[in-house]
Design brief:
The structure is a single chain. A two-stranded antiparallel sheet has the order 1-2. Helix 4 packs across helix 6. The protein is built from six helices and two strands; from the N terminus they run αββααααα. It has two domains: about 70 residues, no CATH class; about 70 residues, no CATH class.
Length: about 170
């Protein structure tokens, strides 16, 4: 869930067959309707996780579930309670994915499509838009107008250039 942004129901419905889809994509089954299925790109960590899970069960048929357990609520609760962390849920993993994407520079409409939102990014913008401001603040710290900075190309001297009227 942390590597795909999938909802709990979507992860529970994942089968091995879509993992083998062409184009390095993962077909995420819809949980409300057949048409709510979406396709997301498989990047390094997600692909590595799926390959590791496949190695654990190499004889599983393609129509078998990838995830064997319907929920990890008790494990998450225990993992948080013992060190005194705040409660963390399955949906928190989805937020983690979206946050990581936005903070990595992925635009919000793309993240929204990966999450399966049908509103063109409006919800994602409300929930994750503040992260763009934090990113903007971090980026502005890199701006420099110093000529000694290698990122700036000095302008040629134009002091002898006279601009004619009308130009």
């Amino acid at each position: 869930m942390a590597y795909s942004g999938c909802r709990l129901g979507e992860v529970s419905a994942l089968r091995w067959k879509p993992v083998n889809s062409p184009g390095n994509r993962l077909a995420v089954p819809g949980t409300k309707t057949e048409s709510s299925c979406r396709v997301i790109p498989m990047y390094g960590p997600l692909r590595d996780l799926l390959l590791a899970l496949r190695r654990e069960n190499p004889t599983a048929r393609l129509d078998y579930n990838i995830v064997k357990h319907a929920s990890a609520s008790k494990c998450l609760a225990t993992a948080c309670r013992k060190p005194g962390f705040p409660r963390f849920t399955h949906h928190g993993l989805r937020h983690f994915f979206a946050t990581a994407c936005v903070e990595s520079g992925v635009d919000i409409p793309t993240v929204s499509r990966w999450l399966g939102h049908k509103d063109g990014g409006a919800l994602a913008m409300r929930v994750y838009g503040h992260l763009r401001e934090a990113h903007s603040d971090a980026m502005v710290a890199q701006v420099s107008f110093s000529t000694k900075d290698a990122k700036i190309v000095p302008m040629p001297d134009i002091s002898g250039f006279h601009q004619s009227s009308g130009t």
